[in-house]
Amino acid sequence: MPYVLVGDVVMSLAFGPRNGTGPLDSQLSAFAVGLPLAAITSLFPLTRPMSVAAARALCGVDGDRLADGPARTRAAKGRTAAWFTLHLAFGGVIAGMSLAVPPFAAVLIMLPVFAGLRDSGLPELFDHTWVLVLSPVAGVACLLALAGCAAGAGTLLARWAPELLGPTPEDRLAAAEARAADLAVRNRLARELHDSVGHALSAVTLQASAARRVLDSDPEFVREALAAIEDTTRRTVGELDAVLGVLRECEGAGTSPAPTLAELDGLLRRTRAGGLRVTATVAVDATALPPLVSREAYRIVQEGLSNALKHAGDQVTVTLRIEVTGKELEITLENAVPRTAAPRPGGGHGLRGIADRARLLGGTTGTGAVDGVWRLHVRLPVERATTSEGPA
């Protein structure tokens, strides 16, 4: 109605009041002028969100088939303008029919009953008997036609809504990038939780088990194991706070930083306190490594030791070597495979996490058992990480 009123004003200013035309001609002219105005106003950013909300609520269109947010590209704005104009055009036509058809249909239905209606200036055609007999049928047909037009307009708009208000290729690309970023964050959180909390639980379990076995015979070992359990759990709580800080989108705000290879001695000490024999050869200056490589290398070593705790137990010796060869940091963990070793139900995520960490840095991972020795070998490029260092 506002667009029609503006169109009527424009027509009056351009051609004078009515200009000798009838009411219907004047209304159609105002309607024709109002539609282009509607197309222009549809370029406002809020038009598409409001149109999408209307299509979801009134047309029953699945929300996943419609785009969210304002139209940003030229193609999206053009499609939104087409929808908005069609919507108002159909609405204007159906509104005009709804105002005119029901009273006219009511007159046709009541015409044979009320003689006064025939004397109210109707054409002479309505004086014929056959017209009076058919006029109620015509009145009902007019009402049915109005209902059919309204239903047909709604069906067409519901069919066109996904085409005109659906996401453009740019919208789909932006949504895919957002989902990929969210998935990357979720995967990173899963790796961090698995590596830090999983390793801590494995180490604490082994340390408590070893302390229980020698509780009466070796009190000194029990004290060391309990101290290692206390240290492990305290550090794990700090690492868990860091991970939860990322989850709350406030990483670094009052949270503990992720550990690096500079803290490798503490990891080895806590692991040995649980009874696992670890021989380590570290031929690298941890402080000289890029922080990202140092953090990921720490997690890789932690997960490798955790796998040894879970699958090999404390009856084997784990050999750890960390060195820089050329432009790559090499991490190698080896341990004998116990004859009684059996696959752990639900396992397998640790090695996948190691492979993911190495792949994200452009490195490689090799695992497998050869001649009764399980070997984990990881290569991480140092130079590439130096040039592409970013937030971890």
TrEMBL record:
InterPro entries reported in the protein's UniProt record: HATPase_C_sf (IPR036890), Sensor_HK_TwoCompSys (IPR050482), Sig_transdc_His_kin_sub3_dim/P (IPR011712)
Catalysed transformations (reactions): ATP + protein L-histidine = ADP + protein N-phospho-L-histidine
UniProt protein name: histidine kinase
Lineage: Bacteria, Bacillati, Actinomycetota, Actinomycetes, Kitasatosporales
GO molecular function: kinase activity
Species annotation: Streptomyces ureilyticus
Signal transduction histidine kinase subgroup 3 dimerisation and phosphoacceptor domain residues: 186-250
Keyword entries, A-Z: ATP-binding, Kinase, Membrane, Nucleotide-binding, Phosphoprotein, Transferase, Transmembrane, Transmembrane helix, Two-component regulatory system
The protein's enzyme class: transferase
